[in-house]
Amino acid sequence: MLLAVNVQAETIYELDFSNAAGNVKNWFEKIDWEFREDIAEMNLRFEDDKLVIEPTKDELGVLMREFEPEDYLQGVTKIRIEWGVDQYLQGADWSGPKENFRNTREPISFMVFFGDTKLDSGFIFAPNLPYFISFFLGKDEKPNEVYFGNYWQEGGRYLCIPCDGSTGKTFVTEIDLAEKFVELFGKKQLPITALGIEIDAQKTEKVNGRYSKAFIKRVQLIKQKTN
Questions:
Q1: Does the global pTM surpass 0.85?
Q2: Could you tell me which residues are beta bridge partners of residue 82?
Q3: Sequence-separated (6 or more) residues with CB below 8 Å from residue 7
């Protein structure tokens, strides 16, 4: 006997820049995102239906959305990101064992935080953070590799997907988030408690008057139900 399986998908949270315009900071503040670190130095702008990020200083910039407990995102099973890179960072290097200090930088990453228990960062001057998965686009990294940063090695994992090093191309990163969390941390996925967009151009080289140039068009967090 063949049984029909009906899969329904619901978008739980979405960032869509197709109609975004005006002041970037004001746009994000209206949806409860915060500017952190040196994000103001990242030359953010809305252009051609996307958020463009083009740092002209070798700084770290972060956009964050922290949810109140009653607004935690429950049951998210998939993430889908439409984004790309026009210029990669010169000098970023994720290779080598995690015990070695590496120049772990990215032109753009999207971070998903899980649960509210903060884990040791491994460095006194780095804040403790919950579990997180950081999706990033890199030039020389491998799509099937699980990367570690220099800090947050207990609860942080970095994935470069699809990671083919092309420029001027829109990539679609689509991952079964619930399955990946179990694979990476060996436990059932926790609720999503925060989201972040990070650009880290520290200790890299300026080329063409900038350190990198990346863009993001859309992010969807999806809950799939099977009937």
A1: yes
A2: 172, 218
A3: 224, 225, 226, 227
Q: Which CATH number does the domain 10-226 belong to among 2.60.120, 3.40.50, 3.30.70, 2.60.40?
A: 2.60.120
**For the chain, which residues make up each domain, given as ranges?**
10-226
> Would you give the end-to-end CA distance of the chain in angstroms?
17
List phi, psi (to 5°) of 181.
-60, -45
27-37 residue pLDDT tens: 999 999 999 99
Q: Which residues contact 5 (CB under 8 A, 6 or more apart)?
A: 226, 227
Angle made by CA atoms 118, 181, 137, in degrees to the nearest 5: 95
DSSP 3-state of 69 = helix
CA 172 to chain centre: 13
Output the CA torsion 25→27→32→37 (10° steps): -20
